[in-house]
Amino acid sequence: MEKVSIIGLDLAKRSFQAHGACAAGGVAFRKKLSREKVLAFLTEQPHCVVAMEACGSAHHWGRAIRALGHEVRLIPPAYVKPFVKRQKNDAADAEAICEAANRPTMRFVAVKTEEQQARAMLFRARDLLVRQRTQLINALRGHLAEHGVVAPQGPANVKVLAEAIEEATTSPPLLVVELSRVFLEQIDGLSKKIAELEKVTIHEAAHGATTRRLQTMPGVGPITAMAIETFAPPMAIFKRGRDFAAWLGLVPRQHSTGGKQVLGKTSKMGQRDIRRLLIIGATTVVRWACRKGAPQGAWLQRMLARKPRMLVAIALANKMARSIWAMLTKGVDYRAPAAAAI
What we know:
Elements: E1 4-10, E2 15-22, E3 27-34, H1 38-44, E4 49-53, H2 58-67, E5 71-75, H3 77-80, H4 90-101, H5 114-145, H6 158-166, H7 174-206, H8 209-214, H9 222-231, H10 241-248, E6 252-254, E7 263-266, H11 272-292, H12 299-306, H13 309-330, H14 337-341
Parallel strand pairs: 1-4, 4-5
Antiparallel strand pairs: 1-2, 2-3, 6-7
């Protein structure tokens, strides 16, 4: 039997499928493995490339397999799908992973460390609690609106709803008051948990060299800095800042043919959390510039004079992404364009 050069591993909860291929592309083996036998089987194999889809538990297996001496390649599932032949099953998926990993132009996902995944859990936990609080607030606003109690959106206006249901003159029925108190209790509990997680995030961001450097840029706070350090791949894999901005989906979507360039809205590809946070940060900078005024002759002032605010915010988020790439690849803090020109 020829020496195995690459192994495609289809991950699952209990039953795994391995597909081994030799250097010439021929099939070396097809083997079904239980979860407990995966590492023991790979230990017996010569050091080679082990490819997997970048799905749930892939980073855990990537670290464990890399410790055995193998080279680990994680592939986005969307890039594996075109290589699946006809029927969809574990054996076909493992073979498709093997085929995709052999492509010279294939793009891979960097294996995350345990520290990165711990920070990712912190970010996701806070994000989940914020969404749950928003759902509760909107539900409470909707219920009370049916009884003539109306308040603006946002957590800051929950106090208005609380005061309205306790007023004796305009108070709705007793059952509505009791149920509203249940909502308010849940909202208050979530707000306290969110505040605690934000303190932990600020503490973590203050003790990292990369996160401290990122926060020198206007519009980038502790949460955005943590998201970039946690979810973004090493900046060395991007040749230029434009490539990082394109990876985030902050560039126009192309539908071009025959040499005719057709550009649409932003592509919205890549890591959605970083993209969303950069747009929020850019929107804050644009609002501040509209109130206080941008520096005379600056790019932001020229854009605001002739373009809508939202379009300027997206363009600024693109510039921020390119600046972040430059900061992290060169190891420097943010420098304002006016200061850099002097």
